[in-house]
Inverse folding.
């Protein structure tokens, strides 16, 4: 029993130590989001494989309201990407935490459009939403910024 | 030596001047501060969200049955405990105790009820996903009402048959069901439950769920009441003169609340809770069983037969987004609890999930120093506020008390 607890403590000690270091950054954090934040909702993916645009179903997005997004994916030569696999995560870089929910693609709407459900942002401030896209040209990622 | 004295006295004069300035300066709000301040006012509270999982949620007859049940001590093992024993209307529907006293003593503090119709998650750890599912918990808790669902179903047949039938249809025949039976009981109560067939279990579960739905219909009528702070926000929103509503110290506290104090990270929106779960490093109570908060509750709510997706819910699967997309329990959720609404907080000590902190002053000391969590990791970092700032924050929290003296029932 005590052995179990010790092992669990050990297991967590590494992430906890990392978080503790992060805590120093947190302490100075009451800063506003970076001034040069790219807030555009249409972007090229990090490796340039796709163009992704997102359309939040709430405008403006309010703190704490569950809503959906429509994600549109196209290839470099502007062809819609169907049957892509999309994973969504995100969080608050200045607070060091993730999303309060686990959003998922709920429907492939066709013509490169996908319905994502379960988006929710529970604090005011700077959020990032990361989309991992796996399509015909391979996997790539893209990050969108939001300020609530 | 002399230079350092000079520097020290210059510093002293400087900080005295700064302190004087904070006390006397006229309050002007930046655009960002104004946005946050307005977002906290009751005027920003949307209408009560529908509860598609509860078909009688907005029915006045259901609410009046629910109210009777809420205050009925016959719904307990010893005939002395009702929901109202711990949730006292004249005390903001809580009991002023660190841990609640029912048939026994609970391991957590009683939570106020106003505005819980807006909460996607109920209890400190959110192990229930609706008011009606929540209401079933205390009835079968050995330390709260100490009863079981067969007992409750029989009791409805004896005392509330007509009201029940008018809302939910005829009661099932439970002649063959023993007086006591329930899956959360012990000894013969559990054995007798396990001995029932599926049709009997389902019939009892349905009556039990409907009891919860009637109670929830009543709880939906318990809403947060306007405070002096809301009067201030209304004036600010209208661009009118706000002077004379909050003291200068309370205004300073409000500025800290939305600014340097970072309180709106978690206490945001008109109910001043983000309805999520956070480890804020509150100490564990010696002698109580391990409490890991949200990290245990995620599996509990997913497995609950009374959740939004379960057979007793009136919702369509598409209505259950909170449950479907809930964040799974990682390290962040160890000893994470729901931030309570801060409305009325000043007049209902003690504080935190097990009443660990006795006064508001000590709560603010906790935030200022941000102690390490007993398990998991605290999200807080020390605020390093001075004593005038702490006093201002405390004064501001006092302005969140309801103005009205009459009690909502
Ligand atoms: Cu945050």
């Amino acid at each position: 029993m005590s052995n179990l607890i010790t092992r669990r403590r050990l297991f967590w000690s590494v992430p906890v130590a990392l978080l503790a270091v992060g805590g120093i950054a947190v302490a100075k954090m009451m800063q506003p989001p970076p001034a040069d934040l790219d807030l555009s909702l249409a972007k090229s993916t990090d490796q340039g494989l796709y163009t992704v645009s997102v359309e939040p179903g709430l405008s403006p997005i309010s703190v704490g309201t569950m809503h959906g997004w429509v994600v549109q994916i196209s290839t470099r030569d502007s062809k819609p990407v169907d049957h892509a696999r999309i994973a969504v995560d995100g969080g608050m870089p200045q607070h060091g935490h993730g999303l309060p929910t686990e959003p998922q693609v709920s429907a492939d709407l066709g013509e490169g459009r996908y319905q994502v459900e379960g988006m929710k942002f529970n604090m005011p401030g700077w959020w990032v939403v990361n989309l991992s896209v796996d399509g015909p040209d391979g996997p790539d990622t893209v990050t969108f910024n939001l300020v609530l | 030596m002399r230079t350092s004295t000079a520097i020290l006295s210059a510093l002293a004069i400087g900080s005295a001047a700064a302190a004087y300035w904070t006390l006397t300066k006229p309050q002007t709000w930046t655009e960002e501060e104004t946005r946050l301040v307005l977002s906290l006012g009751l005027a920003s509270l949307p209408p009560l969200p529908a509860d598609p999982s509860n078909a009688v949620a907005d029915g006045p007859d259901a609410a009046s049955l629910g109210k009777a049940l809420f205050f009925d001590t016959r719904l307990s093992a010893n005939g002395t405990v009702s929901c109202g024993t711990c949730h006292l209307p004249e005390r903001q529907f809580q009991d002023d105790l660190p841990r609640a006293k029912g048939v026994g003593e609970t391991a957590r503090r009683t939570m106020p009820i106003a505005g819980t119709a807006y909460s996607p998650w109920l209890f400190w750890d959110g192990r229930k996903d609706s008011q009606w599912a929540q209401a079933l918990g205390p009835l079968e808790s050995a330390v709260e009402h100490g009863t079981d669902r067969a007992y409750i179903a029989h009791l409805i047949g004896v005392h509330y048959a007509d009201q029940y039938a008018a809302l939910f249809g005829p009661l099932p025949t439970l002649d063959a069901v023993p007086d006591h039976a329930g899956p959360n009981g012990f000894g013969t109560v559990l054995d007798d439950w396990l001995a029932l067939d599926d049709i009997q279990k389902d019939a009892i579960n349905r009556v039990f769920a409907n009891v919860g739905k009637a109670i929830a219909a009543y709880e939906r009528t318990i809403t947060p009441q306007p405070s002096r702070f809301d009067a201030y926000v209304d004036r600010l929103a209208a661009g009118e003169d706000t002077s004379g509503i909050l003291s200068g110290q309370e205004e300073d506290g409000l500025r800290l609340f939305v600014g340097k104090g970072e309180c709106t990270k978690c206490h945001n929106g008109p109910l001043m809770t983000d309805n999520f779960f956070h480890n804020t490093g509150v100490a564990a109570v010696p002698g109580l069983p391990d409490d890991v908060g949200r990290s245990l509750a995620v599996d509990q709510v997913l497995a609950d037969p009374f959740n939004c997706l379960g057979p007793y819910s009136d919702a369509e699967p598409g209505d259950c987004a909170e449950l479907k997309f809930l964040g799974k329990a990682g390290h962040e959720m160890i000893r994470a609890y729901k931030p309570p609404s801060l409305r009325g907080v000043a007049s209902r000590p003690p504080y935190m999930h097990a009443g660990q902190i006795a006064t508001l002053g000590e709560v603010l000391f906790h935030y200022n120093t941000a102690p390490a969590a007993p398990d998991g990791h605290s999200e807080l970092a020390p605020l390093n506020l001075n004593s005038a700032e702490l006093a201002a924050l405390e004064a501001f929290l006092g302005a969140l008390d309801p103005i009205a003296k009459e009690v909502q029932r």
The domain at 5-48+225-286+333-398 of chain B is CATH 1.10.760.10 (Cytochrome Bc1 Complex; Chain D, domain 2). The pocket of copper (II) ion is lined by residues A 92, 95, 97, 123, 125; B 265 (CB under 6 Å). Residues 1-24 of chain B have pLDDT under 50 and may be disordered. Residues 226 and 336 of chain B are 29 Å apart (CA to CA).
